[in-house]
Amino acid sequence: MSKFWSPIVSRLTPYTPGEQPKIANLVKLNTNESPYGPSPRALEAIAREVGDSLRLYPNPDAEPLKLAIAARHAADGITAREVFVGNGSDEVLAHAFHALLQHGKPILFPDITYSFYPTYSGLYQVEYRAVPLAADFTIRADDYLGHGEAIGGIIFPNPNAPTGCLMGLAEIERILQGNPERVVVVDEAYIDFGGETAIPLVQRYPNLLVVQTFSKSRALAGMRVGFAIGHADLIAALERVKNSFNSYPLDRPAIAGATAAIEDEEYFRKTCGMVVASREKLVASLTQLGFEVLPSAANFVFARHAQHDAAKLAASLRGDGIIVRHFTSARINQFLRITIGTDEACGTLVESLKKHLA
Ligand SMILES: *Cc1c(COP(=O)(O)O)cnc(C)c1O
């Protein structure tokens, strides 16, 4: 604390990201990064942008990237006017809080969810109500209905984080229909690992904003690119906030790299398929070791063992050079969140767990 701080600063609760330790040969299964590199075409495009052109500002609207994202979703009627891009989807989400969820009324999100939502609520002074997940850790659509104009909006990830549980499109549609006067933000950071995107609903629901990221399924976490798709009026609000904050959130290499990445559908499908196959194998192995594993549609699993304390297991794994994520909040403090690595990395994890469970 310092007398120089603006008053709000001391009241903030900043987000705590998973650690990025600088230890060699670590099996790093704690922050849901891709175990595979970005598309080779993305790497070439990035390399081409690293040169003299860096003295010039990038395209402020990241137009080539918006066009590429729109082209991929053209069948759902998406044009560049329905696309917003930002410096990681975290930034896109922040602008959504600022531009679309700040109405002086509490917003709703699950009690167990992405911990950036309470952080942004604090930053933008948006009140919120944390809606408890069902006993099986799924989000119940009914809990988000019948609030009328008493709420300021709704946000949740699908699949949810850190549970990995997926909500079907029919349920999402019920939430949209039940809240026609409020924006519903669906954070699809993990949708490419087995879920069905809500993007096809954008044409019919002007209150839907779908947010996605290049960090997970396109292996570009280090580049910081995220995007939102929604009705042009919602996108216009995000643009107004963005252009009041930072006109150039995406640098030249990021625009080029992300554009090439989204155009490389084949590499994307192949690597997502590999992650899903490894996930199914890991779920089988963990189940065999006595873990309860929540059904995951993400690139991680959320698992607990009835006889073994999660914090102790995480510490034991760490001793073997394997890091996973452990959360300390009450309902989930017996779970480990394990990112899907290569089959080799998952195998190392399973062998270490076998040793510590014995
Ligand atoms: C990883 C993640 C994001 C943010 O990703 P960026 O790297 O900022 O694009 C957003 N939402 C959820 C639920 C995530 O897990």
TrEMBL record:
Cofactor(s) needed: pyridoxal 5'-phosphate
Root EC class: transferase
Pathway where it operates: Amino-acid biosynthesis; L-histidine biosynthesis; L-histidine from 5-phospho-alpha-D-ribose 1-diphosphate: step 7/9
Entry keyword annotation includes Amino-acid biosynthesis: yes
Domain Aminotransferase class I/classII large: from-to ranges: 25-353
GO molecular function, a single term: histidinol-phosphate transaminase activity
Keyword RNA-binding in record: no
Annotated positions of the N6-(pyridoxal phosphate)lysine modification: K216
Catalysis: reaction(s): L-histidinol phosphate + 2-oxoglutarate = 3-(imidazol-4-yl)-2-oxopropyl phosphate + L-glutamate
Record EC number: 2.6.1.9
UniProtKB keywords: Amino-acid biosynthesis, Aminotransferase, Histidine biosynthesis, Pyridoxal phosphate, Transferase
Subunit structure: Homodimer.
Name recorded for this polypeptide: Histidinol-phosphate aminotransferase
Organism: Herbaspirillum robiniae
Gene name of this polypeptide: hisC
